[in-house]
Amino acid sequence: MLVLYDGTTSVCGIKARVTLAEKGLTFESRNVDLGKGEQFAPDYLKLNPNAVIPTLIDADEIIVESSVIMQYVDEIDAAGPSLQPEDPLNRARMRLWLKRIDDPIHPATGTLTHATAFRPAFLKKSPEEQKAHFAAMPDPARRARQEAVYRDGLDAPIVANAVRTFDKFVKDAESALAKNDFLAGERYSLADVAATPYINQLDALKLLPVWADTAPRVSDWYIRIKERPSFKAMLTDYLTDEDIARFAVIDDSTAAKAQEILVEK
Ligand SMILES: N[C@@H](CCC(=O)N[C@@H](CS)C(=O)NCC(=O)O)C(=O)O
After folding, report:
1. What CATH code is carried by the domain that includes residue 9?
2. What is the CA(53)–ligand 1 centre distance, in A?
3. Based on the structure, what is the number of domains in the chain?
């Protein structure tokens, strides 16, 4: 039995979960509560020394890094339809999307999410708890980003860069979708799986209207993605009441700030 350590709203966890669902593979999902700092528990660090989710366990083997997990999951089930394009050019395009989504899209998402949805709960922690949280983070770049947005929210200077990073991403996705129905060709692939939680996160942060006029194909792609059974099973059905409440604090001011940044450009 495959075991996946992940989190209900974790974008990287969703990449792994959707891949497993699209392949029709069953797995045991173990929730790591990032808000409670469970990623820093000594037993978890033995599995994933980077103190991040997801981590996949297959028998005695440990696989980390969401894009690697996705490709591994696709390849262990060789009998099922592949989620990687057959022709080398589309496969290269798929890999480029995976690479770009890992970096810079993933850190940009963290910046926007921590500045908005996750900030109120963090600010309720005592100064000692806040200090302990940052001290436990092994990655100094991640720590610096979180410190900046927990302190200054959407006014942190790194927010502007995150918004511009997404602007370019959405526009490039629009261009790719002008040529093909999916991001890396005519068939749904790991590129679409990887993009799913990030476009969904823009939706959760009420940011999608920023690109409503300039990226109609991305809107259409997202409608088609949401119709796939894997979306409800691996995203919507995982949400707890607490998750829904955390994102309910988001109002139109995030989109207004993003518009302001893009006009300034
Ligand atoms: N490159 C890693 C990044 C994983 C990652 O950043 N995961 C986030 C959740 S989506 C996390 O665990 N964050 C822990 C934290 O912020 O302390 C991957 O793709 O697996």
Report:
1. 3.40.30.10
2. 5
3. 2
In the reported structure, the alpha carbon of residue 39 is separated from the centroid of ligand 1 by a whole-number distance in angstroms of: 9
Report the alpha-carbon distance of residue 204 to residue 184 in Å, rounded: 25
pLDDT tens readout for residues 58-116: 999 999 999 999 999 999 987 778 999 999 999 999 999 999 999 999 999 999 999 99
Domain ranges, residue 230: 88-264
- Binding pocket residue ranges, ligand 1, CB within 6 Å: 10-12, 34, 39, 52-54, 65-66, 102, 106
**Closest ligand 1 atom to 67 CA:** 19
Same domain, yes or no: 173 and 132: yes
12 alpha carbon – ligand 1 mean position (Å): 6
Tell me if 55 is assigned to some domain.
yes
- The beta strands (E) that lie in the chain are given as 2-6, 27-31, 55-58, 61-64
Task: For residues 249-260, give the mean pLDDT.
Answer: 95
Task: Using alpha carbons only, give the angle 239, 55, 238 rounded to the nearest 5 degrees.
Answer: 10
pTM of the model: 0.96
User: Domain for residue 52, yes or no?
Assistant: yes
